[in-house]
Amino acid sequence: MKRIIFLFFILVSSLFSAEILGKNYKEISKLVQEVCPIKNVDIEKHKDWAGYVELKDGSIVALSSSKYTFAYMLIVQKREGQDSVKNIYVTDYKSKKLIDAKTAYYVFGSNIMSVGGDDLIPFSLENDAKEFFKVNNGKQIYRFDRMTENFINYLDMR
């Protein structure tokens, strides 16, 4: 019986994870808190920048930008272990839809700022990132593997 309940929980969690991709802020805003736990700002006011960390326990934490999404991910991984984070989502700057943070392209150093200043601007498509990069004076395009503690601290001037 416990095995059946456990398998059911895994199935439901998997379905929810797949369903969050491609959604916009309004479609999932009822599921999470209203204030960014790192920047302490209203996420509704910065919804076009919102990121989400889904933990293994099924809870989802909303953050005010991709930079703070990665900062929160790193804090949780350091506190609870590398396997404590199930999924990470960021808002595609062009489509305003949620995308998997691990597959996104991030423009760094552009003239567009988030609530936290210099940030990583996510795109699901490399061509969209390159176009934005050219138009907005980007400095570099990065992938998920670049989101280390040192890099996020550098962005946040810690």
How would you describe the overall organization of this protein?
This protein is an alpha+beta fold. The protein has helices at residues 2-20, 25-28, 66-80, 126-135, 149-155; strands at residues 51-55, 60-63, 85-91, 98-100, 105-108, 120-123, 140-142. Strands 2-1-3-4 form a four-stranded antiparallel β-sheet, covered by helices on one side. Helix 3 crosses helix 5 (149-155). The longest helix has 19 residues, at 2-20. It starts with a helix and ends with a helix. Residues 1-18 have low confidence and may be disordered.
Q: How are the SSEs ordered, and which strands pair?
A:
Layout: H1 2-20, H2 25-28, E1 51-55, E2 60-63, H3 66-80, E3 85-91, E4 98-100, E5 105-108, E6 120-123, H4 126-135, E7 140-142, H5 149-155
Antiparallel strand pairs: 1-2, 1-3, 3-4, 5-6, 5-7
Straight-line N-to-C gap: 49 Å
- From the alpha-carbon coordinates, what is the Rg to the nearest angstrom? 16 Å
Say how many strands there are: 7
Helix segment tally: 5
The residue ranges in which pLDDT falls below 50 over 5 or more consecutive positions are 1-18
**Helix coverage percent:** 25-40%
Q: For the residues shown, what is the average pLDDT?
A: 84
String of helices and strands: HHEEHEEEEHEH
Helix/strand-derived category reads: alpha+beta
Please outline the major beta sheet. Answer: 4 strands, antiparallel
Molecular shape = globular
Strand order of the largest sheet: 2-1-3-4
In terms of DSSP E residues, the strand content is 15-25%
